[in-house]
Here is the input.
Amino acid sequence: MDDSPGSQDEPPHDRPAHDEAWFGALFDAHSRALYSYFVRRLPDGGRASDAEDLAAEVLATAWRRRDDVPDGAELPWLYRTAGYLLANHRRKMRALPVAVVPDEPDDVDPATLAVDDDAVRQVLSRLSSRDRRILLLVAWDGLSGDDLAQVLGVSRGGADAALSRARARLRDAWDAHEQAADA
Here is the structure.
């Protein structure tokens, strides 16, 4: 065993150890947010057990890869991991009849979101899956600009620009929806 400073068994001195206490705090702080993330994104709100299982898998991944989880940006890292797990989960779901398959690939189907207002669902359905994802991460999941940048894997400026463009497209889609409703 290497006892020299910086050996593989020791965490770097400039960051706290990602030990059981760290994981307990991570779990307490973010498990509910992960569960809610999946409930909102699974078809028809998903089964509670599916949301629980997927949230548990994200947390298990965080434990296995604890040295990769950035200090101070844990939630964005968890959401990014959750996005990958959700995509895998959707691929494993049973086949849909061809008539039900959407024309465009979509990582968030607004028809299945827990949104009561039909007009909002209709407007969201006109946006790209990326725009919907950005808007929902900010509005539903409460991500800040820095956290959104982490989840998207872009700079803070890139995240701000993407959010601004998504909001502008949402406004345009909302205006078009209202004009169609008035006609």
User: Anything to note?
Assistant: Residues 36 and 91 are 20 Å apart (CA to CA).
